[in-house]
Structures are given as C-alpha cells and as structure tokens.
C-alpha cells in the first residue's frame, strides 16, 4: 500500500477500528499497512483515542507487550442515550399506537435503521463488560435489535424459533407458558446454533410478564448455557408478578387506556 499522509491515515485507521469493535488489533497491523514506525502509529492512535472519548463514540484501550495492541469498545454516553430514549417515548405515547390487548405498535420505529442502531449501541454499552459469547432473541420483532446489539459487540446472533426449521437440522424444543395469556407455547433452538456452556446475552423488544424470556432461559439450560444479561427495549409495568429478574429496559410503559387513548411511556430501568 502506498504511504499516506497522516490525515488520510487517521481517517483509514478510524474506519478500520469502527468496523472491528472488541477486536484486539496489533500495532504491527497498522505499521505494516501504512509502512510507518510503531511510534508514529502510537501517536496516531492517541489522537483517535482522544476524539473517540471526547465525542462519546467509545473507548480505545491499549494493551502493552508483544501480544498487545489496541481494542475499540463502542460506548454511548448515558446522557446521550437518555435524550434519544426520551424522544422515542414521545413517539410511543401517540394514541394511535394502542393495539388490542394494550400493546403498542412499534414496528415503524423498529424498521428505521438509525433508531435500531442507536438502541443496539445503548444495549452494547450497558452490557460491554458482560463477556457474552452470543446475542440471543426469539423471532421476530426482536431480531433487528439483536443484530444491532451484536454488531457493536462483535458477536454472533442466535435465533430461537417458534417452530423447528428443517433447514437447521435437529433442534431442542421446550414448552413454556406465555406470561400474558397463560397459553402453552413452543420454542426451538437448533443444536448447532449454540455450544454448551456458552454465555448468552438475551435481547427482546417488549416484555410484560416475561414468559417468553423465561422460556428462553429454560431452553438455555438444555445447552448448559449461562445468561449474562437481559435487555428489553420496552417493558410494561402493569403486571402483578414478573417471571424475570435482573434485566434492564430502555423504556417503561406505565399505563395504557384504550378508552381515553392515553399512553404513558418513560425512560426505563437503565436510567434509574
């Protein structure tokens, strides 16, 4: 590769780091690519680190030693995430979003890449230190949130199906009780999708009682997996008993009145 000016090199290095979150990159990777001394690369990285941390993009960690290098960890300042979530709460409080069963219509928001990416960045920040191996969700509405979170954590996504798919081979299936309507339902996970003893981060779009998440936790026991964290985009507080503990929510729905078309949504437990 031709030798670049420092300004151009900084741009390329920044892009390289942004595309490889949580990956340890040896200094020799940059030194060889740009035909520059490690001392020059270290100076460049110091500039990138200052900008990343000053602008709330994330943290750049340096590991010393022969096997060392730099690792970029995306992180969103909590004040920034709070402002973002407050704007979403205002949209979720629109009366026309009320659906039968006191659910909220959120598909339009979850269909906007910029919103989904910011939700994923917030979850990735909240669980940055949990050392998960995979991000898990159940089809279908939680899928974009899981992928967005996984992209910032550099992790694979595991999808729990409502029905086993022939194309995924043999699967483990369990019955679980839906927390909302108390119906017995089934969920399945392909045996090849998850290794035993894996550490799993669960992400979902909505939780009322928590029956679906409880089902995923029970399913993970069949794989001897450990749940390292649970993140929910919107939780409903209009329940007497929750089936899930130790989770974080980004938004909290406290009241839905179909008669008066009133919806109350506030920032969730992550901001408490």
TrEMBL record:
<dbReference type="InterPro" id="IPR000836">
    <property type="entry name" value="PRTase_dom"/>
</dbReference>
<dbReference type="InterPro" id="IPR036388">
    <property type="entry name" value="WH-like_DNA-bd_sf"/>
</dbReference>
<feature type="domain" description="Bacterial purine repressor N-terminal">
    <location>
        <begin position="5"/>
        <end position="74"/>
    </location>
</feature>
<dbReference type="InterPro" id="IPR036390">
    <property type="entry name" value="WH_DNA-bd_sf"/>
</dbReference>
<keyword id="KW-0805">Transcription regulation</keyword>
<comment type="subunit">
    <text>Homodimer.</text>
</comment>
<dbReference type="Pfam" id="PF00156">
    <property type="entry name" value="Pribosyltran"/>
</dbReference>
<keyword id="KW-0238">DNA-binding</keyword>
<dbReference type="InterPro" id="IPR029057">
    <property type="entry name" value="PRTase-like"/>
</dbReference>
<comment type="similarity">
    <text>Belongs to the purine/pyrimidine phosphoribosyltransferase family. PurR subfamily.</text>
</comment>
<keyword id="KW-0804">Transcription</keyword>
<protein>
    <submittedName>
        <fullName>Purine operon repressor</fullName>
    </submittedName>
</protein>
<dbReference type="InterPro" id="IPR050118">
    <property type="entry name" value="Pur/Pyrimidine_PRTase"/>
</dbReference>
<feature type="domain" description="Phosphoribosyltransferase">
    <location>
        <begin position="109"/>
        <end position="241"/>
    </location>
</feature>
<dbReference type="Pfam" id="PF09182">
    <property type="entry name" value="PuR_N"/>
</dbReference>
<dbReference type="InterPro" id="IPR010078">
    <property type="entry name" value="PurR_Bsub"/>
</dbReference>
<dbReference type="InterPro" id="IPR015265">
    <property type="entry name" value="PuR_N"/>
</dbReference>
